[in-house]
Each structure stands twice: as structure tokens, then as C-alpha cells.
Amino acid sequence: MENSALLAALHAKIRGQLLDEFNKLISNYRESRWESSEMSGGKLCEIVYTILLGHLNGSIPESHEHGPRDLRSALNDLEQNFPSSLGRSARIQIPRVLISVYELRNNRGVGHAGGDVKPSHMDATYVVAAAKWTMAELIRLFHNVSSKDAQDAVEFLTDRELPMIWDVNGRKRVLTAALSKSAQTLILLHQVSAAKDEELFSWVEYSNFSVYRSKVLRPGHKQRLWEYDPDTGMVTLSALGVEEAEKILSAGS
Fold it and tell me: In angstroms, rounded to a whole number, what is the distance separating the alpha carbons of residues 203 and 171?
């Protein structure tokens, strides 16, 4: 199914807004930008609300201009203000999923403490799963297809998103090969937070390990982009490094 055929019942502009925000969400998630993923999830909720409200009113607008002042209350109102004859999906099921996504977007900070798995990663993973379900449900509603066909259409969309980091045979590769080795190291650390110097050397495919340590890892340490402990070989990304990595990721998205 071509992109132009997805959600064809919607006006082109609002369909484009919906698909663009969904694609941003998937791209941010694949590049480990958890906060940006949750932000995109929140914007997606607002667009979907506009579509649902228009659908229930009998006239979907051509474009999404802005969300309601209180999205949670507005989503709850869909269940209360429209008759059950219009079905549960648009009135109840999709809105309740959107409320949970918007709750994470507004009331969960991304700087959680403790644990090997960051809660911000778990939050973003939930947001992506909820967004995929929502998109599949919209496709099912507006195209009158089965749940499986709708899910296949969503996977078609996500499969077309090119991540910047490729995991292959236990190794990681930055697919934008034109980036400097320092920039590639930053992006890799942004995904994993910390890694051994030998791992990073292997992933960026530097020509010589000693030179990689002297030309990339030690200068980055001095710039406070990461903390490099040559005794243990551990390289840990700093807050400044996160900021710089996200600048590179934003420029490439």
C-alpha cells in the first residue's frame, strides 16, 4: 500500500500532518531521543483528537490548527457527548489510549534515577506502541479493513523510516558515514550512554586503536563530551555530550 493510499478518506493536509508526526515519533525513538519521542507522541494525540472530533461530528477538518486547552477533558468528552451508535473505537478506545500517552508527555520527567533500563526509554517504548495501535485503528476505521491489514499498513510506514544507527551481528554502525569519527562516537554513546573504548573503536572502524584514543576519546574527554577512564576503558556520555549529539541527530533528521 502506498503512503498516498493510507487514510485516503482524510483531507490531504491533515493526513500529511498525521503521518509526518507519526514518522517523527518513530525516527526519534529509533535514534534514542526519548524526550523527543514523547513530545511527538503528545502532538500526535492532538492531531488524532481533531480527526476523531470531526469524524464524530460528521465533518473532518482539512487541517489541524491547534489542540484543545485541556486535551484530557476533551478526550473524555467524546465518550459523554456522542451516542453509542457511533461505536466505541472513536468515542472510547482511541481516546483512552491517547489520554495515557498525553499523561506521560505532560507528567513524567525524562530524568529518572536508578536502574539499568531508563524509565524514559520504557515510557517512549509505550508511546511508540500506543501510537502504532492508534494509527492501525484509524486505518481500520477509515478503510474498513481487518485489524491485521491495518497493522500491516502501519508496519509498512515504520519500515520506511531509516534509523541513523544500524545494529548488525552484535555491532553498531552509524549509517551517515560522512560524519567525523568524533561525531559518530557521540551518536553511538547517545544510544547506549556508556561503552568500552574497544567497542566504540570497533563500531566507528577507526584505523588504529591508539590513535583513536588519542585523537577522539581524549579530546572528547577534555571537552567534557564524555568521561573517559583509560584504566577501565569505559566511556560515559555527559550531559553536554547529550546536547551535542542531539544537535547532530536533529540536523540529520
Answer: 6
Closest among 16, 3, 130 to 64, alpha carbons compared: 16
CB 142 within 8 A of CB 153: no
Determine contact, residues 228/235, Cβ cutoff 8 Å. Answer: yes
pLDDT at 115 over 50: no
Give CA torsion, residues 191, 23, 156, 176, to 10 deg.
-50
User: Does 133 lie in the same domain as 243?
Assistant: no
Q: Which domain holds residue 182?
A: 165-252
- What tens digit of pLDDT does each residue of 208-228 get? 999 999 999 999 999 999 999
The verdict on pTM exceeding 0.90 is no
> Which of 141, 159, 177 is the last residue before a domain boundary?
159
Which one of 94, 127, 159 terminates a domain?
Answer: 159
Q: Determine contact, residues 33/249, Cβ cutoff 8 Å.
A: yes
CA angle 152, 97, 61 (to 5 degrees): 80
Work out how many domains the chain is built from and give that number. Answer: 2
Question: What are 171-205's pLDDT values in tens digits?
Answer: 899 988 889 999 999 999 987 889 999 999 999 99
